[in-house]
Design goal:
Length: 692
């Protein structure tokens, strides 16, 4: 039986686990536990007049439904019913063009920070998220965070939607907060830019931050169970504007596979009203492919919100089998819609393209291949550099850096290189080691105290720079990979493989401590300048906002989350052409002496079979780079995986050929994996990575 499954990394990459990204996927198919029905987070707003924003709800109608705010996206624990309970109600005033909200919170205590250093995290605060335009291609999200004494908003410059700067305005928000005993009322009105009209749907959500006096950490309570809501309009609930006379009817349906052996379904669908002025809504599917809600009576077209799904053998595109997919409220319920996989053209030749001759003579075939993968897998954009004869022989970009605005990728567009940052840092460490500034085999605690979480574990004193660079510290990738969110040591350091970004973070702190320099200066001086690598950044720079591709969750861009500070495990931003120059420098043994390169290229940590290229006879980490012994000789490189970005770099040493590929979409792995067969192995020798 075919089923959904998270694919193992077939080449070693960053495997970086960002908290918001993990929860994004965990909660896409959110279900109501008590009923087993899909949780759609759809509320209805009815007209209201003569409402004063004063924190007193006596002028609110008593018939309005109460919508619970009870989801705990970070799995926080609420200690009993008295600790925290909240709901909201919503209406609108068409003459004033405002949405009206009331939130009622019951809590044991309410904390307000009156100091000059007050932040959203040091007190009880309330975040409102709104997607006013509510476009099918996911328009931008405005965020306001406030309480009586505090106000903050997200930076509109990082949004994928250029109109957010005009939509986000504190003058549009009026609020009042009143507390009576253990009950707090947050009443506010939000003036919309677009005209409020019957049938319109607006994306809305809330995150209530509960700061208990006796707790060191905050609790986060949301309407829809998702985090970092400003990054994607799909993470918001929805509010439909209705007239008091509008009749709601149940609408129910189900997806079913054309092949009944397939297990699992997409997370959501869209119902687009065929009756004006009613808008579209997104609905979650349960584990059996069912959806259900109440909508104004009428006929709706069903659409796939995301037509790529992940199966055991890779990502695949799905489509409806029927030409017409319509459903009506009322008697036309429980309708079944058949879905099937959409076939992809197989363009892999008997021999790899780079084994048949110069890329200059075959680049049209390469371009056709890349564009076919962009179209099938909804990969937004690509930066690609092909290496031949120890130089970049072909450099080209494809697609879009922002699917929402359709801004094209160009040769100046930068991408997140994710974990390919690690070997760039490792090269700098090897140069420091050559000059005796750091001893690769000296326990790091003798330079700088070990991380707080493992200070009482005596094994922490065994960790050296060599052990960090070869991924054998025993640390998890990141502390939040553990249920308690803390760093620990899984085995005696230096005895086996355990990929860890946290280990690199510790070594970064050590290097800054012993050199007295910031890490960006070290990376520039010891790596970029030595290997002549241009257009590469490790932290925020103003011009990056205009020149950096946006990462995409599925089909939709998210905010430009350029790291405000450098992390040597993941924060490098560059392009394929510039990154290729780094790998050519490594391949040509530039900047280090022969003995140091022999140490760097040695087989320090062998990786498990499940993590490696199925064609490789041996696979291991050196000190930074990753190596494979294949039928075409030794390869060196590294791959990377940040939320919304997938990238890879590889050089076949004996062939003098290779590539760097950078993508700004979650499905970029499909292209990355297929390039090995298309460029080198072909159908004759390919056996492990080709996506069907």
């Amino acid at each position: 039986m075919n089923s959904f499954k998270k694919l193992p990394f077939q080449r070693i990459g960053s495997q970086i686990a960002i908290v918001f990204f993990v929860f994004y996927f965990l909660h896409l198919n959110d279900l109501v536990a008590q009923s087993g029905k899909p949780a759609n987070y759809l509320a209805y707003a009815y007209p209201m007049d003569k409402i004063d924003i004063d924190g007193n709800l006596n002028d609110w109608p008593t018939y309005l439904p109460k919508n619970d705010i009870s989801m705990l996206p970070y799995n926080d624990k609420i200690e009993g019913e008295g600790d925290f309970k909240a709901y909201f109600q919503v209406g609108y005033n068409q003459n004033k063009n405002v949405l009206l909200f009331s939130i009622v919170v019951e809590d044991d205590s309410f904390v307000e920070d009156t100091s000059n250093d007050a932040k959203w995290s040091t007190q009880d605060t309330y975040s409102l998220y709104i997607d006013e335009k509510h476009e099918l291609n996911h328009s931008g999200v405005v965020k306001y965070t406030f309480n009586k004494l505090f106000g903050d908003q997200s930076d509109p410059k990082i949004s994928w939607d250029p109109e957010i700067a005009q939509l986000q305005n504190w003058n549009n928000l009026t609020y009042a907060i009143e507390t009576i005993g253990k009950k707090r009322i947050i009443e506010f009105q939000l003036k919309l830019t677009e005209k409020i009209q019957r049938g319109k749907v607006v994306g809305i959500d809330f995150v209530l931050i509960d700061k208990d006096i006796d707790e060191s950490e905050n609790s986060y309570v949301a309407w829809k169970n998702s985090v970092w809501k400003e990054s994607d309009a799909g993470k918001l609930g929805q509010i439909m504007i209705l007239d008091s006379q509008d009749k709601l009817e149940e609408i129910k349906g189900k997806l079913a596979w054309e092949q009944d052996t397939i297990d699992g379904y997409p997370s959501s669908i869209v119902l687009q009203s065929l009756k004006k002025p009613f808008d579209w809504v997104s609905l979650s599917l349960d584990s059996l492919g069912r959806f259900a809600t109440e909508l104004p009576s009428g006929k709706y077209e069903i659409l796939l919100e995301n037509d790529i799904i992940q199966m055991e053998d890779g990502y695949k595109k799905i489509t409806f089998s029927d030409k017409e997919n319509l459903i009506s409220t009322g008697p036309d319920k429980d309708k079944v819609f058949t879905i099937a996989f959409k076939e992809k053209d197989n363009m892999i030749g008997l021999r790899g393209l780079l084994t048949k001759g110069s890329i200059q003579n075959n680049h049209k075939e390469l371009d056709k291949f890349i564009n076919s993968y962009l179209e099938y897998y909804n990969i937004p954009g690509v930066s690609l550099a092909i290496i031949e004869n120890d130089e970049v022989a072909y450099y080209k970009t494809y697609g879009y850096k922002n699917l929402y605005t359709k801004e094209p990728v160009n040769k100046d567009t930068r991408f997140e290189a994710a974990s390919i940052t690690k070997p760039v840092f490792a090269f700098a460490v090897m140069r420091l080691a050559e000059r005796g500034i750091i001893d690769l085999d000296k326990p790091l605690y003798q330079y700088l105290a070990v991380p707080e979480d493992v200070k009482d574990d005596p094994r922490s004193k065994l960790i050296t720079a060599r052990i960090v660079l070869s991924h054998s510290t025993g640390f998890p990738n990141w502390p939040w990979n553990n249920p308690n969110g803390k760093l620990d040591i899984k085995f005696e350091p230096g005895t086996k493989y355990s990929y860890s970004g946290a280990g690199y973070g510790y070594l970064q702190d050590v290097v800054e401590e012993i050199t007295g320099k910031d890490i960006v200066s070290i990376l520039n001086e010891e790596t970029l300048d030595v290997l002549d690598v241009p257009h590469t950044y490790f932290e925020f720079a103003p011009d990056l906002l205009d020149n950096t591709a946006l990462g995409h969750n599925g089909n939709y861009p998210h905010v430009n989350d350029i790291r405000p500070a450098t992390h040597v495990a993941s924060s490098m931003i560059t392009d394929a052409n510039s990154l290729a120059k780094f790998w050519l420098g490594i391949k040509n043994r530039t900047g280090l002496n022969k003995e140091t390169y022999e140490d760097m290229f040695g087989a320090h940590t062998h990786t498990p079979d499940a993590d490696h290229n199925a064609r490789a006879e041996k696979h291991y980490f050196g000190l930074g780079p990753y190596f494979e012994e294949t039928a075409f000789g030794l390869t060196l490189g590294h791959s990377g995986n940040n939320p919304g970005f997938k990238c890879d770099s590889v050089i076949f040493e004996d062939l003098g050929k290779g590539w760097v590929v950078m993508t700004n979409g979650d499905y970029g792995d499909s292209l990355i994996n297929a390039l090995y067969d298309f460029l080198i192995y072909g159908k004759e020798t390919g056996n492990g990575l080709l996506q069907n």
